[in-house]
Amino acid sequence: MKILLLGKNYSSVLSNYSRTLKSIGHDVRAIEFDGKQNEYRSYENVDSFRIIENLLSVSGITRMMRLFIIIFRIVARADVIHVFSDFKVSRSERINQYLFNLIFLYIHPQRNFVTFLGSEVRNPELELNLNKFYKYAYFDKSYEYANSEKKSNSYKIQNKYSKCGFHLICSIETKRYIDVRLFKSFVLNHHPSSVGINFSRNSKCRGKLKFLHAPTAPVAKGTKFVLEAIRELERNNILGYEFEIVSNLSNLDFLTKLSEADVYLDQLIWGWYGIAAQQAMELGVVVIAHLTHDRLNSVYESPIVNADINSLYDVILNLISLNPEQIDNLKKETRKYYLDYHHPERVVIKSLEHYLE
């Protein structure tokens, strides 16, 4: 099967899909248009094109024509196209819409799929009603995703793909924002994740419990509440743990730090867990995150330690009180959960089943 992956390589999702599809014998091409490669992502088996900035110059027009020809040739030979987040090649909305309609209505109107990755379809009105902690991010002037998270944006992007007859492969996180009536078919599937590097398994806990937090988006992750919980532990002279907060690290340096931790503090706002948490699980690192009740019911066997901004102190205190054997058992359950649900091969095989339906 000839498969074309297009869109955003957020959290290395294109790289994970592409590498895994190739490993099981499929002819796959992955193309992203993020412009500049991000040091926190893997671009293995992904072709990265720079978004066309200036269409008024001769060089800009020439580059656009060349890019169109490349895309058309690749699209024409594909059996399946799977778009992640969105498909944009230019800053011009008119050019993007023209190319999008040309590809998906005329050149390749058959087996097309879309997976939304998070903020592009998050509906703030709905989230505020269902998640009482979301307000601590949404109404913060520094909220990192304020421009993209709008009800109108969610409808616009869903309608765009619906009009072109797309099938939807949806994560548990984004399910609540989707109008499934818009899509030809609908299936739930996790995002794949992989550290992509051969780290040794996380060693057994024998000393102080090591906690790690990475505030890549401090407001969205609730970093200030994490720091408040740690300060309260210090005020109460609680011993038996170490805490480290890391930022501005390369992907390799971050993963090295992560592999040395016992517990990863993910996020306390969104009601789900991110790719870094999945990487932690792959390494056998226990994860603390806030899961809303509806999502928690979808993953009832999850070993993720559920916490919110009010309970985080007690949750950390409880983990510190566990003996090493209990921590080691929790690490094993965490690693097993990753293998069952987020290992790229498990995720990709389920997507392939949907491609072939």
> Topology as H/E string?
EHEEHEHEHHHEEEHHEHEHEHEHHH
User: How far do the termini sit from each other?
Assistant: 13 Å
**Main sheet record:** 7 strands, parallel
Level-2 CATH architecture of the largest domain: 3-Layer(aba) Sandwich
Categorize the overall geometry.
globular
Tell me the strand percentage band. Answer: 5-15%
Number of helices: 14
Low-confidence stretches: none
* Subunit organisation of the chains: single chain
In the sheet with the most strands, the strands line up as: 3-2-1-4-5-6-7
Look at the structure and give the CATH class of the largest domain. Alpha Beta
Structural class: alpha/beta
Protein described:
The chain has 357 residues and is an alpha/beta fold. It folds into two domains: 2-132 and 145-192 and 344-356, Rossmann fold (3-Layer(aba) Sandwich), CATH 3.40.50.2000; 209-341, Glycogen Phosphorylase B (Rossmann fold, 3-Layer(aba) Sandwich), CATH 3.40.50.2000. 42% of the residues lie in helices and 14% in strands. It has 14 helices and twelve strands. The strands form two sheets. Strands 3-2-1-4-5-6-7 form a seven-stranded parallel sheet, covered by helices on one side. α1 crosses α14. The longest helix has 19 residues, at 58-76. The mean pLDDT is 90.
